[in-house]
Amino acid sequence: MTEDAEVDEKELLTIGAFAARCRLSAKALRLYDRLGLLSPAYVDVASGYRYYRAGQAEQARLVALLRHLDMPLARIAEVVEAGGAEGAELLAAYWADVEERLARQRTLAEYLRGRLSGRSSEMYGKFVVETVDVPEQVVITEIRHTLADELPAWIGASLERLERAALECGGVPAAPYVVYHSEVSMESDGPAETCVPVADEDAALEWAGRRGRSRETAVRVEPAQRLAYTRISKAQVAHPQIIAAFEAVEEWITAHGLTQAGPCREVYFADWEAAGPEDPVCDVAFPVR
Question: Do 244 and 206 form a contact (C-beta atoms < 8 A)?
């Protein structure tokens, strides 16, 4: 209700009385009003005094509790406006994002503690490194120069494009992967190459022909090779946490008298969208000989 609307003054509470009922401060209520999260039922034009209805107390408490979750103001507004079951779903989606972020940060904190305290070897020991022989395979690829902050979005979009194209090339017989031909960080832009194995080389070449000449897309035969790898969770994939996994595999390769035989890669064997933060989704790997 705005200041010029008709109101029953008997139903209204002063901001002080309403704050006491909600167990909030008048300062908090003024902030909620300014942010568009909870407007007074009536504002006296002459004095500027705010008045509230008792029924607004539940919304006021909801806003206060959501702020305790460090929820951004825009998302609080969405939850409050939706209310009911829809609001609960929006809250659940927000909290899933929070838990995923906390899992990534936990992994990063463990990595940094190990690095700062000089316990690198102990830290790397948490990663189990194994080897696997991968047969020759035909892959369709995209390659791009990109910085670390843009990398996840590009990988997801690129693999989605290539997996759709693979349906025209006999299907996807093995896990997609990303090859790093040079370092990708906030200072170095790679390039990185997304690769999706396909079952039909002739169909892949036809697909590439339809796309025309491009520096970003290609079809090539990946030779048979042995990979040294460690399996990591979805939370550990985030940069820079994933660096610890790469370093652990590199240390294992040196300790076992092997030599790196090609650029490092990430092999994505699980459904990324369906996986939780602690679910294994990726093998961090190096070709070795």
Answer: no
Residue 93 structure tokens:
């989606």
Nearest to 229 by CA among 279, 278, 264: 264
Residue 3 pLDDT:
45
How far apart CA 264 and CA 223 sit, in angstroms, is 15
Inter-residue contact 241 to 107 (CB < 8 Å): yes
4-62 pLDDT per residue, tens: 445 555 678 888 888 888 888 888 888 888 777 887 888 888 888 888 988 888 888 88
What is the CB-side half-sphere exposure of residue 203 using CA atoms within 13 A?
12
Look at the domain 9-82 and name its fold: Multidrug-efflux Transporter Regulator; Chain: A; Domain 2 (1.10.1660)
C-alpha closest to that of 189 among 231, 147, 149: 147
CB atoms within 10 A of CB 130: 13
Domain boundaries in the chain?
A: 9-82, 129-288
Residues 6+ apart with CB under 8 A from 142: 158, 161, 162, 193, 194, 216, 217
